[in-house]
Amino acid sequence: MNTALIGGLLGGLAAAGVVMAVLASPPMRRPTLADRIAPYLADTANESQLLARPGRGTAGALARLTAPLLRDAVRMIDRLVGGQASVRRRLDALGSPITVEQFRTDQVLWGALATAGGLGVGLLAVLFGQTNPLALLLLIGGCGIGGVLARDWWLSQAVSKRNAAILSEFPVVAEMLALAVTAGEGPIGAIERVSRLARGHLVGLLGGILADTRSGTPFLVALTTLRDRTQLEPLSRFLDGMAVAIERGTPLADVLRAQAADVRALGKRELLESGGKKEIAMMVPVKFGP
């Protein structure tokens, strides 16, 4: 164990902490435009900060102290990673209530936790005789970057699972809507009946259309809004077909049945493509197995 190396690492961490604390202090922080004009735009008198109710306990004080650093880290990650439109589109597809800023905050927290884990592994490596500072720095930095990217990957996986569940529910829901329309229900009544009888992600999206319609949004506008928000091409064609059928007066039941048949055919094609791609892998246990 190299005592000088451990002392150097701890001293470097302490120095970095002091520098970050000094740069984040109010005299060193550059006020934003919103902070400068906020006192002149307020329509009520600002209360004294002495009368403001402070956060309870150490957690509230720690949150207030680390909030500026967290905001700076969120802005830095947003500049480096970018892709706000992609994140917002995936969050909308997932139906998540969090914003892009909250997602970036989650990425910062994941990166901080991964960096702390990498630092712990690095200290263990130093204790067991590893004295290469470059390797330790690469390990810690790689863990931090991996934590940030892991949060983005987790969101993509959640969206993929939700889309797969919607596609699996799609044919059955489309057939139920077609049966309800054939029995004499209108489009809104058919969606309402299916929402009462079925459960699932697609039914939840249809329930959102009902909620928008009851709040005053025209039915066609609610359909097109969901069509523009979804990432699934079959669902987008389905909603577009419903909107066109309602607008032009074409038989809606036939459109719904045709869309359900298209989704079933798409599922069969994807299954055949998946089997073709894994054909060689499936031959390995047959060829080399006992």
Summarize the model shown:
With about 290 residues, the chain is mainly α. The chain is built from twelve helices and no strands.
How would you portray this structure in words?
It is found in: Cell membrane. Keywords: Cell membrane, Membrane, Transmembrane, Transmembrane helix. InterPro entries: T2SS_GspF_dom. Helix 6 crosses helix 7 and helix 9 runs antiparallel to helix 10. The protein has a domain of 116 residues: Receptor-associated Protein (Up-down Bundle). It contains twelve helices and no strands. Helix content is 80%, strand content 0%. The protein is an all-alpha fold.
In the CATH hierarchy, the third-tier topology of the domain at 162-277 is known as: Receptor-associated Protein
Q: Main sheet?
A: none
Separation, N- and C-terminal Cα atoms: 49 Å
The fraction of residues assigned to DSSP E strands is: under 5%
Name the average pLDDT.
76
Into which percent range does the helicity of residues fall? over 70%
The value of Rg in angstroms is 28 Å
What would CATH call the class of the domain at 162-277? Mainly Alpha
CATH architectural label of the domain at 162-277: Up-down Bundle
Number of strands: 0
Helix and strand run = HHHHHHHHHHHH
Spans where pLDDT lies below 50 across 5 or more residues: 48-55
How would you sum up the global shape?
flat
| Helix-strand category | mainly alpha
* SS summary, helix count: 12
Keywords: Cell membrane, Membrane, Transmembrane, Transmembrane helix
Transmembrane segments: 6-24, 108-128, 134-154
InterPro entries: T2SS_GspF_dom
Protein name: Tight adherence protein C
